[in-house]
Amino acid sequence: MSQILIVEDEPRIVSFLEKGLRKHGYETAVAMDGEEALRMIQKGIFDLLLLDLGLPLKDGWTVLRELRQTQDKIPEVIILTARADDHDHVQGIQLGVRDYITKPFRFNDLLGRVEAILQAQNSLHA
Q1: Which residues, listed in sequence order, are joined to residue 81 by a DSSP beta bridge?
Q2: pTM, 2 dp
């Protein structure tokens, strides 16, 4: 079963994502800020991060940069953000982000992307 870390500070979005992902068989954990996310990633094994950019304490970009600097292997990352800036897309690509989804989004669109990334990841490790 795939482990997904939801890194989001908006409780309504967290609840929406947790319920939907669990309904489809995924295990989820939640970090409400960037520092908590980094601690959880160091302690746990996650297959995918759903990462908001506008987080308290450390923003999503800082989380990604610190992971790249300190971890040998990091989970796949989907950015979830209200920012639709082209510069953000480019920066995401440079940091190895697999997908970039602008809020608001439909859950089925997100689910399709999650499934595609995790299936590709599983086929590489099979």
Answers
A1: 102
A2: 0.93
